[in-house]
């Protein structure tokens, strides 16, 4: 969704189309479901594949995040989905199932020498953890080439504003109540930068009455313990906000401490 | 290029994760391209769909083999061109419509016109029949050859000279005029040795609600030409070997409106209504209806059937597909009625059971029930006035049909899939109607039809 | 997804129960039916398309058109062949 603060309908529509085109382009290019660069990479597991500029940049970025998170942010962790089913109350897998699938997870098993990528057979990558926030930032940058009008781009809760509104006031964003999904818990006022939320209240697994969040630790194959239900971060760009939120969530019990130490403006909901 | 994150330091000189991330993000976003370039090289532009069907009915009835090919090609940004061809080769016997009898019965039909004086041998007929030369009229320069078949006592009469190959082709175009509105059009042609059909179709689809709702509407016009072997017989006249009437035509207009609605992330629902009106030659030129003696039930004459020269059909169709995280369930219901008095109900259920990340097994069950046409009769009784319309074609009778099938599918990658489906169909009607006369009480007037089909399919996108 | 023979029925029953809960929630909530564009993941799969296997559907239509009196429903009522 893009909100454009202007009275010029033609401009607003054109900007909307530009944002839509760019987000659709990125969604299609990195889709896990439809034929895309990601599916080509995953199909070629076991062999080398050469990547284009943009994909290579995203891979480089994800490698940095892998290092900064001590291995807990890992784009090869998608394989864990084969044994973990998080759709509102799925069942946790067995120790043996998790051990078996872990042999297909781990960036250390990937050979990356830009532009050539080689996944071990049976592995897969997923850029979903970077894709949406990247799309918001890319779309916003492209609109700056078209016009200076204030606007907000919001893709399902990951959003960024170009600056304050025409009259100098801030944009207002509703924060969803995690216990009563679909209703607002509060309002936020934003005049610059981006917001991204990590953690998903819709998807979890119940095991012995305990609720496991859907954030899995790729080093163990099990969900991160004592992770907040959601972390929302405010940062200059959506990509940063998204990554910081994920890095915080991946710290589990230490999420708040991490955010404090790095002086990140964020909210955790437990 | 991604900046060297290890060197990022903040105001206090300390290595900061946040600073490293900020620098890396700046690098990532700065290196992008301008306004949406065409990065669609990964998306497939051509789709090839092929299949072969093997169809086999019980008791020496119809067998068919049908290969098909369909190609869809993206043209430009918003257009798709599609081409399809198929060939359909049938052999075997179909019911004549006549009743079985405790006495052998002889059936005759014209099949060829030859110049007067041509030598005729018995091998020119087919399906176990004898060639009969129909006495030519005085002054005629040609003579008609008819095939005469004897059906033994207590045997359901089948016409075993039924052999046909049908070729069909179609071409279509679909164009997106806006991101929410598409139009489509197509032409189709099909020909067998006694039937030709041409049709044209036009349709539109409008999306609403961020592609969650789609409204569709379409019209189809079909024009058919029937040129049966032996010519078109005059309805309700007695069976004979003479060459019959000229070619006959028929046309049909159809309209469909539909609504497809995404109900939730897992549930898609569609509802459609269709209406069709046809005029022209609706008879089956090869089918007979027996006239039987009012006491003994023995056939005394065989008449060519008679159907009205127009037909109006309506149907409502509801389909629901639900995704259960791995498996998919599909349930559809259809209600139909036409102005020939036929009403039917169809229920179809499929459960796609995902065996692994790739292959699946899909059991399928279909239940079908239809009522008889107003003018359906198992037979006519001698010495009673002839109705205006009468047909003994069991396809217009009251019956129910059950299909059980199993399909196995193996997507070979994101772009191609191989599948094979085996189905068993059983059609059962009342073979012993309560008011059957005389010897007809001992006969089965509607033997079950059972058929097995095997369908191989392979689709590939690139 | 891996399958454990002992759990297949259980996981399917849980899926169906979750589905029932999910459907109830989605229909009892606010007005608009549908799914957000980023929630069209399952719907984009082949099996969830309106006519996912057109050749198979055409074969079925043709077979039933030639053996039964009804036609039409999903698509046009005409048969294009001389078999009815």
Give the tags.
heterotrimer; A: alpha+beta; T-fold; 7 helices; 33% helix; globular; B: 462 residues; mainly beta; Porin; 16-stranded antiparallel barrel; 1 helix; 24 strands; disordered N terminus
Q: Which band does the percent of strand residues of chain B land in?
A: over 45%
Largest sheet of chain B: 16 strands, antiparallel, barrel
Give the distance, in angstroms, between the N- and C-terminal Cα atoms of chain B: 32 Å
Q: Give the N-terminus to C-terminus distance of chain C in angstroms.
A: 46 Å
Task: Give the SSE map.
The complex is a heterotrimer of chains A (270), B (462) and C (84).
Chain A: E1 2-4, H1 9-29, H2 37-43, E2 48-50, H3 53-68, H4 95-102, E3 111-113, E4 116-118, H5 128-146, E5 151-155, E6 158-161, E7 171-176, E8 184-190, E9 194-198, E10 204-207, E11 210-213, E12 230-235, H6 238-249, H7 255-261, E13 265-269
Antiparallel strand pairs in A: 1-5, 2-4, 3-4, 5-6, 6-9, 7-8, 9-12, 10-11, 12-13
Helix pairs in contact in A: 1-5, 5-6, 6-7
Chain B: H1 17-30, E1 46-57, E2 63-75, E3 79-91, E4 94-95, E5 105-115, E6 130-134, E7 142-151, E8 158-159, E9 164-178, E10 181-192, E11 195-208, E12 213-226, E13 248-264, E14 267-280, E15 288-292, E16 299-304, E17 310-324, E18 327-338, E19 343-354, E20 360-370, E21 380-381, E22 399-413, E23 416-429, E24 449-461
Parallel strand pairs in B: 15-21
Antiparallel strand pairs in B: 1-2, 1-24, 2-3, 3-9, 4-8, 5-7, 6-7, 9-10, 10-11, 11-12, 12-13, 13-14, 14-17, 15-16, 17-18, 18-19, 19-20, 20-22, 22-23, 23-24
Chain C: H1 8-28, H2 54-67
Give a quick precis of the structure.
The complex is a heterotrimer of chains A (270), B (462) and C (84). Chain A is an alpha+beta fold and 270 residues long. Chain A has 7 helices and 13 strands.
Describe this structure as you would to a colleague.
- The complex is a heterotrimer of chains A (270), B (462) and C (84).
- Chain A has helices at 9-29, 37-43, 53-68, 95-102, 128-146, 238-249, 255-261; strands at residues 2-4, 48-50, 111-113, 116-118, 151-155, 158-161, 171-176, 184-190, 194-198, 204-207, 210-213, 230-235, 265-269.
- By secondary structure, chain A is α+β, with helices and mostly antiparallel strands.
- In chain A, helix 1 packs antiparallel against helix 5, helix 5 runs antiparallel to helix 6 (238-249) and helix 6 crosses helix 7 (255-261).
- Chain A starts with a strand and ends with a strand.
- The mean pLDDT of chain A is 84.
- In chain B, the strands form 4 sheets. A 16-stranded antiparallel β-barrel of chain B has the order 1-2-3-9-10-11-12-13-14-17-18-19-20-22-23-24. In chain B, strands 5-7-6 form a 3-stranded antiparallel sheet, with no helix packed on it.
- Chain B contains 1 helix and 24 strands.
- By secondary structure, chain B is mainly beta.
- The longest helix of chain B is centred in the N-terminal third of the chain and has 14 residues, at 17-30.
- Chain C has helices at residues 8-28, 54-67.
- Chains in contact: A-B, A-C, B-C.
- At the B-C interface, strand 1, strand 2, strand 10, strand 11 and strand 12 of B face helix 1 and helix 2 of C.
